[in-house]
Design brief:
The chain has 482 residues and is α/β, with parallel strands linked by helices. It folds into three domains: 1-89, no CATH class; 92-266; 276-477, 3-Layer(aba) Sandwich (Rossmann fold), CATH 3.40.50. The protein contains 19 helices and 15 strands. The strands form four sheets. Strands 11-10-9-12-13-15-14 form a seven-stranded mixed sheet. Strand 6 and strand 7 (139-142) form a beta hairpin. Helix 5 runs antiparallel to helix 6 (161-178) and helix 5 (101-119) packs antiparallel against helix 10 (242-262). The longest helix is centred in the middle third of the chain and has 21 residues, at 242-262.
């Protein structure tokens, strides 16, 4: 896993990855409040439920050792006299632009649960963005422990409300109503989508429906009448009656919860590929042979971390998870990734589903491309095994990626095992994808494929799937490559 650039958006401190550790540097004037929150019932309960990142303060000797690291000198210089804490490391970081709507919804639910629970301990959540969340498998984990601050008991306002609407509710609304992909939305809009942007999508009558009125239309109309220079809107409005202030906040959270629940993604949403497992061209013996082949490879190599590339609805991801692996399952279809998330939650499988197109993987994003590393930066060398099943013909034909490039990518990502399915050009799906351009791949056959593997992998075994033009390969990564 690459080192990450230190975060910088919170003046109370910053966080970075260093030598496989996640370190948080906290400014001197924020240490007391930070440690007080970590001792609250709220923090303890959510840490115990593994929904909040566990944290410990480093002692003086540990901190002194870190000070000797040249890479950390700029961070210590920026936080003189502060303290260093260490968080547990979430196995594979992911970001909102890689989540299906189901995961964004789940992250929103955790955000509201934490905000409400903190009230009882006298703390408030000071920002509400999905970038505060990572997923351990299919389960959300709140990682920005500095996002909590002591609140004034008379304050009835939750300042992050508008941020929560922009980054959770409106993206879910746009995805559900118009099919706007979260990948495109969060790649170009780190802070979500404004009501004015959604307003432009609405038809004349739709602007007056209850949901659109509260989330979109009224905020848009009010923004036209409010001057950005009006400082009154930023002034605190404290109440003498603290119970009333608490009641107003709790009512707000309940309203946001109801709105979030109304935007929960529809189960079993259909797409081009979401029915593939029910409609694929394999007959039962061929599919059983493929399943047996994958299971045997998993038992032999025992990979601790598996990437299922082109996972579809996660059948083989589940096999890997049941064999004991931590699985990252990627597919370009958000409906498929959502189905994997649902399956993983129901069956308690350690699978992290992501919406990633390997031909156009998630780029590095944020300030100087340093806040969100690219998918390939995170994936390189991060897995003991890779599954590429019913995938390479799509990369070869649809994306026109050379076979050698596909194998080189697999070589860079896996540390040991590659299970790959080779599809002959005579295969029905291959011919459908070529759309009359079959001549471009006429020379491709199993011998050519095996020769292309030679620089990168040893062939452990292969199997022709009965009744098909497909062959399974179990490959072992060589010590070095070209």
């Amino acid at each position: 896993m690459p080192q990450s650039a230190p975060s910088f958006r919170d003046p109370a401190g910053c966080c970075c990855s260093f030598n496989g550790r996640v370190l948080r540097f906290v400014a001197t004037d924020a240490i007391s409040e930070f440690e007080q929150f970590l001792q609250t019932n709220c923090a303890r309960q959510f840490i115990a439920r593994k929904q909040f990142v566990s944290t410990r303060r480093l002692n003086e000797d540990e901190t002194a050792t870190l000070r000797e690291s040249p890479e950390l000198q700029p961070v210590f210089h920026a936080q003189p006299g502060g303290a260093v804490f260490e968080h547990e490391r979430i196995p594979f970081p992911s970001y909102p632009h890689e989540w299906p709507p189901e995961m964004l919804w789940d992250a929103g639910r955790l955000t509201l649960e934490l905000a409400q629970a903190a009230l009882a301990d006298g703390f408030g959540l000071k920002d509400a963005t999905p970038h505060n969340i990572l997923f351990r498998g299919s389960e959300p984990v709140f990682i920005d422990a500095l996002s909590f601050e002591r609140r004034n008991p008379g304050d009835p306002i939750w300042l992050p409300e508008a941020q929560f609407v922009r980054t959770f509710l409106l993206p879910l609304l746009a995805s559900r109503r118009w099919g706007l992909p979260l990948t495109e939305l969060f790649t170009t809009r780190r802070d979500g989508i404004e009501p004015e942007a959604v307003y432009r999508f609405c038809g004349p009558l739709e602007k007056f429906t209850p949901r659109m009125l509260s989330l979109v239309s009224i905020p848009t109309w009010l923004s036209r009448k409010t001057s950005p220079d009006d400082q009154k809107i930023y002034q605190p409005h404290l109440l003498a009656n603290t119970e009333k202030a608490r009641f107003i906040l709790e009512s707000l959270f309940k309203r946001l919860e109801r709105t979030l629940d109304s935007l929960k993604p529809v189960a079993q949403k259909k797409s081009v590929w979401s029915d593939y497992m029910a409609t694929h061209s394999y007959d039962d013996p061929a599919f059983a042979a493929k399943e047996k082949f994958v299971n045997e490879a998993l038992r032999e190599f025992k990979p601790a971390r598996v990437l299922d590339a082109g996972a579809n609805t996660g059948h083989f991801s589940a096999l890997a998870a049941q064999a004991g692996a931590e699985v990252v399952a990627v597919d370009l279809d958000a409906a498929c990734a959502g189905a994997i998330w649902q399956r993983a939650r129901e069956q308690k499988l350690d699978i992290l589903p992501l919406v990633v197109n390997l031909a156009h993987p998630s780029p590095a994003l944020g300030w100087r491309n340093g806040e969100c590393p690219s998918f390939l930066d995170r994936a390189t060398g991060a897995f003991d095994g890779v599954l590429m099943l019913a995938l390479i013909h799509h990369l070869l034909v649809t994306e026109r990626i050379p076979l050698e490039e596909i194998l080189r990518l697999a070589y860079e990502v896996t540390n040991s095992l590659l299970v790959i399915e080779f599809v002959e050009p005579k295969d029905d799906m291959f011919r459908r994808l070529t759309r009359g351009r079959a001549a471009l791949h006429a020379s491709l056959n199993a011998a050519v494929f095996e020769q292309a593997c030679t620089p990168y992998f040893e062939i452990v075994r292969s199997l022709a799937l009965p009744g098909t033009q497909r062959r399974m390969y179990c490959l072992k990564r060589k010590g070095d490559g070209n």
